[in-house]
Request: fold
Amino acid sequence: MNAIAVLPHLNAALNAAAACFLIAGFVFIRLGARRAHRAAMITAAVISGLFLISYVSLRFYAPIFVFQGDGAIRVFYYVVLVSHVVLAMAIVPLAGFTLVRALTGRFDAHRRIARWTWPVWIYVSVTGILVYLMLYQLYPAATAGLS
Reply:
């Protein structure tokens, strides 16, 4: 298996790790554990940044596979994929604005935007895993060029 072939699996693992830290950050802030919340959310941001680098590398070097499922599962896949892609494009600046507001001590503004950012970010992370499972595990395409 070449290095590029590992990237889809790495991307799914990074999405899963980001989702775990996002959930931990949410729980920590609900418990009033601000330092733990900050650490979890910064970790989620770093992991998401690593994901973005890995994903762009994958898209640059590897072919794009066509989903192999048929019927209702195909419709479901593309609905999930389109919503994932649209929200993934939105989450980059949204998460950035949210993080900057927290790091600069503008906590009222941070809270207001975080109410939108967190659900979108967790959705993008979880649907990223779902897209991976459907495209590479449940309905895999021929992996010519990736093995």
Observations:
- The chain has four helices and no strands.
- The helical segments are 3-30, 34-61, 72-103, 107-138.
